[in-house]
Design goal:
Blueprint: H1 12-81, H2 87-99, E1 103-108, E2 111-114, H3 116-122, H4 129-134, H5 137-144, E3 149-152, H6 154-157, E4 162-167, E5 173-178, H7 181-187, E6 193-197, E7 203-205, H8 209-213, H9 222-229, E8 234-241, E9 244-252, E10 259-265, H10 266-317, H11 332-357, H12 363-370, E11 378-390, H13 393-398, H14 402-422, E12 426-431, E13 434-439, H15 448-470, E14 483-498, E15 503-508, H16 510-518, H17 522-525, E16 529-532, H18 533-539, E17 543-553, E18 560-568, H19 581-588, E19 607-609
Parallel strand pairs: 14-16
Antiparallel strand pairs: 1-2, 1-5, 3-4, 4-5, 6-7, 6-10, 8-9, 9-10, 11-13, 11-14, 12-13, 14-15, 16-18, 17-18, 17-19
């Protein structure tokens, strides 16, 4: 076969460009569409939940604030009825205003009580109170009949002010003028905006005081209309107002037919996704163009040698097996042509060795496999799974040379693996600086209790080994090391997993996942060894531990109880230190978590800590 006969109708460059460009375009387009769609769904759910939660919190704050001012005013009025005017009543009034700083004026039965300190602090005049009430006699009559009303008095006083008209008893109306500054702080003025309206739609409290001063009314707002038409107390809808779409939530208050509205613009929620999608499209176009050019030049560099290989293949097809090929290329194709047979023999021998020994990283597993004691496939075992990780390993390794990182890591792992092997455990794998080990598979010390206790004993040995290791450290280039250990016991599927080229003996299952997710919780909880309730039930007679806050783990309906391991319990003689978690933290230099529920932003968003 000559070179002329090797001419093809569709050159390899064209095929490569067509196939790779098509695949890239399809994959990038699909990924962009799926990511945008899925992220949009997640963002929408998050936005709705956040908006509804903000509305609920604002409604609770408004209800508590209004109820408190109403109750305080009634208590003062009833108290003054039984106390004659004089020094004692004056002291009562002064005490009331000192304890209720938001109340500015209290009017009842022709008597006007003024909080002078309030108006001095706000540089305002209390005189508009009486004219305000005179112009709203209909509301006073309704208040005398027992109806509670809340009105906007901000335009009259020129400072934020609400007026609550209520009955003081015996058909006597009363009015309480108070500042809504406390509510305005809870309503926010960022993405989610909450505001308070009365039964007529008048705006009472809003982060934008300009709207309150202008006597804005939301009677015709689509969300307010929907709220008035429906008899439910709380709801969230997607509505359009003045051409803008909003997520809107409302909550009706049991006072004066008031309602708290919380909104967030639809476009604001998805603005980041739209910008990201546009950037992704432009990036995809750039990647496609670069790919086309790279494929074109790459195809030109290999098309000639491939033609020569095609000629050789034709000669082999014709029965000429002893072919000597001479190529001027000194690249991979030339090397492949010259050494294919030798490479094949070498690879065949090495693959046989790798197939026998390259599947295992544990001596115990390899020995049992060679003896035929491991079942092919998987088997269910009750085992204890251990995970450990070095805290801030990335920051430590960044300050070291690569060869120093490897040396330091090997020195550390030798000590830790020694603790595992001494207690009968099996190192499953190394994940960078992390260690995964198993007790109970493929070998067991006798029963799940002893396996779990051996695992806990190994973790405590690691703690002491690390303390000894840290004695020679403490400099900038050799900082102290801290680790976190997570332990869980449960049913696992143990067996040989992998492919024909690479296999390993490992364990999988929910118990493994829970152990892996337990380890990162050491940092926010201020511990170094955490065990789950499953392990605690097996070792509680032999281990001193303190229970930590319950953890809700993704995929589990009930919170998981967690215990911080302090020490092994001794049956004879005095108990050695440490005996409390506080001692452990002091010895290891671990800072306790801040008061309250620990922050889990430092780990994956798969947890929730319960009080």
């Amino acid at each position: 076969m000559n070179k002329a006969a090797v001419r093809v109708r569709y050159p390899i460059g064209f095929k490569l460009m067509f196939i790779i460009t098509g695949l890239l375009a399809l994959s990038l387009g699909t990924i962009t569409f799926l990511v945008s769609s899925l992220v949009s769904m997640d963002v929408r759910v998050t936005a709705e939940n956040t908006n509804f939660s903000a509305n609920t919190q604002a409604a609770e704050a408004a209800e508590n604030f209004l109820s408190l001012n109403r109750s305080a005013a009634l208590v003062l009025l009833h108290t003054l009825e039984s106390v004659p005017e004089g020094e004692e009543s004056r002291r009562i009034i002064e005490y009331f205003f000192s304890e209720n700083g938001a109340v500015a004026v209290l009017v009842s039965g022709g008597r006007t009580l003024v909080n002078d300190n309030f108006f001095l602090a706000n540089e305002a005049d209390p005189s508009p109170a009486v004219p305000f009430l005179d112009s709203r006699r209909d509301y006073l009559d309704r208040a005398a009949a027992g109806d509670l009303s809340v009105l906007n008095a901000t335009p009259d006083f020129e400072i934020p002010m609400l007026a609550m008209l209520l009955s003081a008893g015996d058909g006597t109306p009363a009015a309480v003028f108070f500042s809504p500054e406390f509510l305005a702080q809870h309503f926010g003025e960022n993405v989610n905006i909450s505001f308070l309206i009365n039964s007529e739609g008048d705006l009472l409290v809003h982060p934008d005081q300009r709207l309150v001063k202008e006597k804005a009314n939301y009677r015709d707002n689509p969300l307010v209309k929907s709220m008035r038409e429906q008899g439910i107390q709380k709801r969230q809808i997607l509505y359009t107002d003045a051409g803008t779409r909003y997520f809107g939530a409302f909550a009706k208050l049991p006072l004066a037919d008031l309602a708290v509205i919380t909104t967030v613009e639809y476009g604001t929620v998805f603005e980041g996704i739209a910008a990201t999608t546009r950037r992704t499209i432009w990036l995809s176009a750039g990647v496609l163009w670069i790919s086309v050019m790279c494929v074109w030049f790459f195809s030109k560099s290999i098309s000639g040698p491939l033609k020569n290989l095609s000629i050789a293949a034709g000669r082999i097809k014709g029965g000429e097996f002893n072919i000597e090929m001479h190529t001027k290329n000194r690249d991979e194709i030339g090397l492949l042509t010259a050494s294919f047979v030798e490479m094949g023999k070498g690879l065949a021998e090495r693959e046989r060795l790798k197939d026998t020994f390259g599947r295992f990283i544990n001596r115990e597993v390899a020995e049992r496999a060679m003896k035929g004691e491991l079942e092919l496939g998987g088997e269910t075992k009750l085992a204890t799974v251990f995970f450990s990780d070095i805290r801030d390993f990335t920051a430590i390794s960044e300050k070291m040379a690569p060869q120093d990182v490897v040396g330091f890591l090997n020195s550390y792992l030798v000590r830790m693996v020694n603790c595992v092997t001494k207690t009968g455990g099996v190192v499953d794998k190394f994940i960078g600086d992390a260690i995964m080990a198993i007790w109970g598979a493929p070998v067991s010390s006798g029963n799940p209790d002893s396996d779990a206790l051996s695992c806990v004993r190994s973790a405590l040995m690691m703690r002491e080994a690390l303390r000894e290791y840290n004695q020679s450290r403490g400099t900038e280039n050799r900082p102290y090391l801290r680790i976190g250990c997570g332990i869980n016991t449960g049913d696992v599927v143990a067996g040989q997993i992998g492919s024909h080229e690479r296999m390993e003996y490992t364990v999988i299952g929910d118990a493994v996942n829970l152990a892996s997710r337990t380890e990162p919780l050491n940092k926010p909880l201020g511990t170094d060894i955490l065990i789950t309730e499953n392990t605690w039930n097996l070792v509680k007679e032999s281990v001193i531990a303190e229970e930590m806050p319950g953890i809700s783990v993704k995929g589990k309906e009930k919170p998981v109880r967690m215990f911080a391991v302090v020490n092994l319990r001794v049956t004879e003689g005095p108990q050695p230190s440490p005996v409390t978690l506080e001692e452990v933290r002091r010895q290891l230099g671990i800072a306790p978590p801040e008061p309250g529920t620990p922050d889990l932003d430092v780990v994956e968003k798969k947890y929730k800590i319960h009080d």
